[in-house]
Write a sequence for this structure.
């Protein structure tokens, strides 16, 4: 069965048999923003800067760095959020993402990453290599600014 990108059935040009046409996510993604740097992520995730608990977020991207979707992976406490690679990459696999950008807010306003932030970044980067989904950056968000692991050559 040949798949086309629409949401209905139609007859093929040779006559009788039907070709199943399938809805394409790319029609919807076409209008989504392209994120090319940490400042773009900071602007895109503006609403998450001011939350009073840590939110760990994964932005799934297609091959052209266009946003497919934004997923809240974990909502933690005031100063920590538990994250496991399976929860981070599950939505990325479902979205058929080429890459992801991970981010989390620091309600305390502290911009510098903790030891745990660095450890989870390394763990997720290694897991991404294994399954073929790159982590392009890890951004820490606060009301006053952001910290980019990519900009600081830590990823």
């Amino acid at each position: 069965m040949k798949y086309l990108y629409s949401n209905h059935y139609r007859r093929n040009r040779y006559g009788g048999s039907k070709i199943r046409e399938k809805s394409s996510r790319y029609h919807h993604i076409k209008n989504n923003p392209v994120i090319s740097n940490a400042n773009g992520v900071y602007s895109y995730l503006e609403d998450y800067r001011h939350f009073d608990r840590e939110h760990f977020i994964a932005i799934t991207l297609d091959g052209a760095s266009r946003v497919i979707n934004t997923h809240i992976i974990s909502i933690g406490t005031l100063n920590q959020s538990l994250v496991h690679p399976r929860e981070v990459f599950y939505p990325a696999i479902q979205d058929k993402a080429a890459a992801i950008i991970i981010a989390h807010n620091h309600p305390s306003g502290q911009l510098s990453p903790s030891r745990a932030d660095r450890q989870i970044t390394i763990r997720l980067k290694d897991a991404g290599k294994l399954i073929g989904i790159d982590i392009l950056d890890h951004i820490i968000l606060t009301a006053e600014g952001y910290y980019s692991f990519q900009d600081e050559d830590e990823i």
Summary: Residues 1-29 form one domain. The chain has four helices and eight strands.
